[in-house]
Design brief:
The protein is an alpha/beta fold. The chain has ten helices and ten strands.
Length: 332
Amino acid sequence: MKTRIIRKIIICLVVFVGFSVFIPSHSYCAQQTPVKQELKFFSGSPAAGGVWYLLSVGITQIFGKSIPGIETSLVPGGAGGGPISVGEGNSQAGLVNLGPFLDAQEGLPPFKKSYNNLRILGSLYNHVFQVIVLKDSGINKITDLKGKVVSPGIKGQYSEFWFKKLLKIYNMDPAKDIKVVSLGFGDTAESMKDGKVDCLATAAPIPMPSIEDLATARKIKFLNIDNEQLKTFCATVNGFQPGILSAKKIPYKGEHSDITTAFLPLSVMVSADLPEDLVYKMTKALAENIKDLEQMSSSMRGIDPKSLARSISPKAKFHPGAVKYYKERGWQ
């Protein structure tokens, strides 16, 4: 009888200890299981290919390998559509130029309403306002473009808007004083080789493959934006900052001089609605793996991770998750 009682006591103790060990262990495992988080990233490109698309692929790959549970996908579209996509909740992050970012916040054209839920995760590099002509064209300044054929990019894109704005600051009528053709970079370069187009005007990264190809076939040069007009342009067009592009940073074939022009920061944008902890992890992942992006774009070569935290405009707010990481690193 006593033996049976002792056996029952032992069995009860074993069961109790088993539950005591199992329950905390099960709870711990549950806490360690990554929570699935879908992240749609606006690529700024309507199709595969191009610098923005490749950068978007690289950035989402960094997030995917660094953040447990995150599932990324790319949302296609033109560069100016990013603020609408993120603002309307069709994507949660993406690439954006500072100009469209600020225009969207303020509800300026082409945006039909303001989007106040846009935040900056970090800034990558500057796009450069480039006005390129052939060296033997006889075109030496912006006003020499009167009567010439100019391609400011595909119709409806921001480059066209910005170039026409610059012409107006020079008291030139884009509809009368020049002939505008709407071509992509590659087609523009080919048309300049053939003498069908006199000038390419765009705000884009340096280098660009199409311009490298043009510079190999024909000698090219960049036109300066005069100081007075440059000051007015940057004061009246969101996102641009005046500066000098050193000739040493121009990678194209031939001899080049320093260029007085405007710079436009390219950034990673996120929705203000994303959790602070998630954006913290995204920022940390991008900062720690930023060198991975060098293979996606030569413009990313040698970029210091600290530059992600640089202030690009007092009107461009960082997401709290990004701020938390940058403050921990002493970058803000």
